[in-house]
Design goal:
This is MarR family transcriptional regulator. It comes from Nonomuraea harbinensis. The protein is mostly helical and 78 residues long. 49% of the residues lie in helices and 8% in strands. It has a single domain, classed as Arc Repressor Mutant, subunit A, CATH 1.10.10. α1 packs across α3. The longest helix is centred in the N-terminal third of the chain and has 17 residues.
């Protein structure tokens, strides 16, 4: 597995933000920053910092309307 895509290396905040992106993004294809702040209950700056990390690792992609999911890269080690 590519270490840049090791879900176990994500912080609790990053996982929380990723899950907040995943719900609306699966249904609508994207979610806006204001909605993410509302869903997570985190300060806007913390959400933006987490999004930057998630984008840099390919888990989240910026879209014209907000943020969507990157390619599914999660795997299970046996």
């Amino acid at each position: 597995m590519d270490p840049r895509h090791d879900v176990q290396a994500l912080s609790d905040v990053d996982i929380h933000v990723y899950e907040a992106v995943a719900g609306p993004a699966v249904e609508h294809g994207w979610v806006g920053l204001d909605e993410l702040v509302h869903i997570t209950g985190l300060p806007g700056e913390e959400v933006r910092e987490s999004l930057e990390r998630l984008i840099s690792q390919g888990y989240v992609l910026p879209t014209p309307d907000g943020y969507g999911l990157g390619p599914h890269t999660f795997g299970v080690w046996r």
